[in-house]
Amino acid sequence: MVSVPTVAGPRDHTALGRVLMHEHVFVLNHEYEINYPDSWDHEARIDDAVAKLDDLKAHGIDTIVDLTVLGLGRDIARVREVAERTETTVIAATGFYTFAELPTYLRLRGPGRLIDAGEPMVDMFVRDLTEGIAGTGIRAAILKCATDVPGITPDVERVLRAVARAHRETGAPISTHTDPHLQRGLEQQKLFAEEGVDLTRVVIGHSGDTEDLDYLQALLDNGSYLGMDRFGLDSRLSFERRVQTVVDLTARGYADRIVLSHDTSCHSDNFPADYRAKHLPDWRFGHISEDVLPALRAAGVTDAQIDTMLVETPRAIFGRTPPL
């Protein structure tokens, strides 16, 4: 049995229950909050997040993986306030989220940079995984990186290689953001393989944004899991087509290589609640339990296959992480 670090303390990997593998508690822009403090009501936001995660628990979900990392406003102290008040388990991540460039602090530091030294992100990520985030002792349990429309730019390449090296040093799994329409997941797998990453420890995220089964099959053939993890984000792909893609993949025998999620948040500075309510009403934590699972069952996906995607596969992903 493996002890998995969570925000509220370690959990046995067999006790995570039903897991949503790609979610967020808070997505923040701290610079705006500092300069425009009326944009953040601390007590109201914490209370709201607790209520949303309590409701998620009532919908039968036990754990979320919070893939909020640097670049998305990770604030582990705030997440801890929420995690200590809800029965929903929250797993934290480390890594960096950028589509093109790193911030100046990191662009100036690293091999061949103005401040010429080793890659600082490797040490940052390893410390988060082994010692804890921001001096809290709360350890991350998974690594996160992103490749979107710009592709593997020089700075994105630095992030991906740093994530790969932290994975090799710690054994932590990797979860990614991709643009599947440009087949960025295959590019990520190629780079990870160059770095010696075990591709069976990688979740290629946002794979559910496409119904290109040939592309998804190629990712599977390379050994990785597929994140069908944007249910409710119907502006990218309709509900019906997302469900059908999962149905098609389970019919091919890949229920054990799929994880489900929404990629939504309790609060996001980028997508205010009124915008989501008007334009993306199903992009919410209860959507999978209320709508997706019944639709999968109606299309012939069995309860055993659903349990595989929500329970057994996340358990396998975290169960192979060595205790630290």
Structural features, described:
41% of the residues lie in helices and 15% in strands. The longest helix is centred in the N-terminal third of the chain and has 17 residues, at 42-58. It has a single domain (3-319), classed as TIM Barrel (Alpha-Beta Barrel). The model has no long low-confidence stretch (mean pLDDT 96). Strands 10-9-8-7-6-5-4-3-11 form a 9-stranded parallel beta sheet. The relative contact order is 0.15. Helix 2 (42-58) crosses helix 3 and helix 5 (120-130) packs parallel to helix 6. The chain has helices at 30-35, 42-58, 76-83, 104-107, 120-130, 154-170, 184-194, 213-221, 239-251, 273-279, 287-298, 303-319; strands at 3-4, 11-12, 19-27, 63-66, 89-95, 142-147, 174-178, 202-204, 225-228, 258-260, 265-268.
SSE layout and pairing:
Blueprint lengths: L2 E2 L6 E2 L6 E9 L2 H6 L6 H17 L4 E4 L9 H8 L5 E7 L8 H4 L12 H11 L11 E6 L6 H17 L3 E5 L5 H11 L7 E3 L8 H9 L3 E4 L10 H13 L6 E3 L4 E4 L4 H7 L7 H12 L4 H17 L5
Parallel strand pairs: 3-4, 3-11, 4-5, 5-6, 6-7, 7-8, 8-9, 9-10
Antiparallel strand pairs: 1-2
What do we call the CATH homologous superfamily? Metal-dependent hydrolases
Percentage beta strand: 15-25%
Question: What's the gyration radius in Å?
Answer: 19 Å
**Helix share, percent:** 40-55%
Briefly note the structural class of the backbone: alpha/beta
Number of helices: 12
Spatial order of strands in the largest sheet: 10-9-8-7-6-5-4-3-11
How many β-strand runs? 11
Our measurement of the CA-to-CA distance between the termini, rounded to an integer number of angstroms, reads 13 Å
**The CATH C-level class name:** Alpha Beta
Largest sheet: 9 strands, parallel
Order of helices and strands: EEEHHEHEHHEHEHEHEHEEHHH
Mean pLDDT, all residues:
96
CATH topology: the name is TIM Barrel
Number of structurally distinct domains: 1
Low-pLDDT runs of 5+ residues are none
Principal-axes shape call = globular
CATH architectural label: Alpha-Beta Barrel
